[in-house]
Predict the 3D structure of the following.
Amino acid sequence: MSHFRIKCGKCGKELEKVYCAFCEHCNDSLLITEYLEPFRDDCGEGIWRFNWLPVHTSTFEQPCTAVYQSEWLARHLGLERLYVAFNGYWPDRGCLIQTCTFKEFEAAVVLQNAAENGVGGLVVASAGNTARAFAHLSVVAGFPVIIVVPRMCLMEMWYLESSSDVPTLAIGDGDYSDAIDVARRISAISNFPFEGGVKNIAKRDGLGATILAAVSRIGRLPDHYFQAVGSGTGGIGVWEMSERLVRDGRFGSTIPQLHLAQNLPFAPMMKAWERHSRELAAEDLRPELIGQISTRVLSTRYPAYSVHGGIFDALSAAGGRMYGVTNREVFESMELFSNLEGVDIVPASGVAVGALIQAVKAKAVRRDDLILLNITGGGEVMLGREKKTYNVEPIFVSKKVTDAEIEEILCGTLKKSC
């Protein structure tokens, strides 16, 4: 008997035998996982110690978030109870996520969930971090994936395994959203499902495991939660998990206030939230704005903002705030964190630190509030001194690639009969 069921977040209809979909009645509403048991953190090792994941077993190891109480950054900001959820490579803190990103959690849970649902392989679109996580765990788990990325992100990308081990396509004339479009077309031709983005409950619950790790360490829900967002999937996952923890009743009666941040000038969700609008504005989604930010991993033009159960609803339920962080603030925040905490962080994490600094200055948090800062990626410099990494060597295609060209590429990369 399963320990969870899948329901529509809008109409409540229970769905059976679904991998990644909308409700057939409410095609603008995310499905949600309903867990039938109280939260536990003693079910295994790493991320698998949590029972609130939509899987029934684990077939490979997966490290988890390291949560610790900050001393030096907290002192610098005048905060008494600042906790850091560090997702990356930092052995001194017991954090051994070699892809250096919390996207490894989504990849682990998605692949395990897909395997349990009889899926033979997946097509994944990424702006960098998700690609690295899925490439690594594809090899670890022996589960095939095809990865599609925009060429503009290649300079910031690396793999733990050779690109020859994982088929990777790069869109030479498009951005992350174009990579998503091509990935969907590849899915239709390859018979591998598209990984699904925010629609995938396994993805959201895997990313939401960060708050489970925090509650396991601290013993209660934080008052405030800070994270940088691109699609918003991680923020939604944390909100959903927090609501489950409130219903559990042992970890607090209030969900954390969400503080979500984007990198200016490409900040469509922040600008929509400032207007108190559920709808994104076309002028805030212009592709040319993406070229002006330092965090390409936060650059999707298809964020999960307006959909029922998306970021707008999460912010509304949690009394949330959104922040715009400039490139200068990003790099200043990265340097500040590294100097004070003793480990390097990636630019997206710098966006989150920059948002926390803004919140302190605006007195949006009090010095004695319990605050959780999600460092979504870090330790790349440290890892580079200890592990061999590989440049990504993809097959280059156009965003207008034909179906015949896709079939020819798949014949070669998947070694299937044609």
